């Protein structure tokens, strides 16, 4: 529950991101919020040792386009993970529900299809104040949390790949 928790405080040190490469796809919609999320993500990546040259940032028009923007990173670059940053604020119509559902399912499908970590840094809030509280305000910065997730998932994938037996040598008994 994030009601009283600062999202930017982690339970322990992050793995080194010195040799990791990240793509960050950012929604242009609600730019004041998404730019704050981007600043938090980049700050966390750099604090974990990721050099500037290993961080690529691209923009998409809105949160609904984040999965395709992330797929472009997977398809056309050599990044180890993608961080998707966006902000969808509840309005008077069901549009909010469709966008949130679409971006969530799109990111999940992308991760599983590409076998690549895609950190979900999309705020889905009832109002602008909640978004501000989670983009550098009293609840920290969801961009920090998304970057930490991406680092941890890349580290896990590297560890799993290093410890896996070659497919042709696995004992299937």
Helices, strands, pairings?
Blueprint: E1 22-27, H1 31-47, E2 55-60, H2 66-76, E3 81-89, H3 95-114, E4 118-125, H4 128-133, E5 135-137, E6 140-141, H5 142-163
Parallel strand pairs: 1-2, 1-3, 3-4
Antiparallel strand pairs: 5-6
Helix pairs in contact: 1-5, 2-3
Keywords:
173 residues, 5 helices, alpha/beta, globular, 4-stranded parallel sheet, two-stranded antiparallel ribbon, 6 strands
Account of the 3D structure:
The protein has 173 residues and is of the alpha/beta class. Helix content is 44%, strand content 20%. It contains five helices and six strands; from the N terminus they run βαβαβαβαββα. It has helices spanning 31-47, 66-76, 95-114, 128-133, 142-163; strands at 22-27, 55-60, 81-89, 118-125, 135-137, 140-141. Strands 2-1-3-4 form a four-stranded parallel sheet, sandwiched between helices. A two-stranded antiparallel ribbon has the order 5-6. The chain is globular. The mean pLDDT is 90.
Number of helices: 5
Radius of gyration: 17 Å
| Beta-strand percent range | 15-25%
Bin the helical content.
40-55%
On the 0 to 100 scale, the average pLDDT is 90
Terminal CA distance reads 43 Å
State the low-pLDDT regions, or none. Answer: none
The largest β sheet comes out as: 4 strands, parallel
Query: Largest sheet, order of strands side by side?
Result: 2-1-3-4
| Elements, N to C (H/E) | EHEHEHEHEEH
Structural class: alpha/beta
Number of DSSP strands? Answer: 6
Principal-axes geometry comes out as globular
């Amino acid at each position: 529950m994030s009601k009283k928790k600062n999202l930017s405080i982690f339970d322990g040190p992050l793995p080194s991101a010195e040799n990791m490469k990240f793509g960050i796809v950012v929604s242009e919609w609600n730019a004041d919020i998404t730019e704050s999320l981007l600043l938090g993500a980049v700050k966390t990546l750099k604090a974990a040792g990721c050099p500037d040259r290993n961080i690529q940032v691209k923009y998409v028009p809105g949160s609904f386009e984040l999965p395709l923007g992330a797929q472009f990173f997977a398809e056309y670059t050599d990044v180890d993970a993608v961080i998707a940053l966006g902000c969808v604020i509840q309005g008077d119509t069901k549009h909010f529900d469709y966008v949130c559902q679409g971006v969530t399912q799109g990111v999940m499908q992308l991760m599983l299809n590409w076998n690549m970590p895609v950190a979900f840094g999309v705020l889905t809030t009832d109002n602008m104040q909640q978004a501000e509280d989670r983009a550098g305000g009293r609840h920290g910065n969801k961009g920090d949390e998304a970057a930490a997730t991406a680092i941890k998932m890349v580290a896990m994938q590297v560890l799993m790949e290093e410890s896996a037996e070659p497919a042709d040598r696995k004992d299937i008994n």
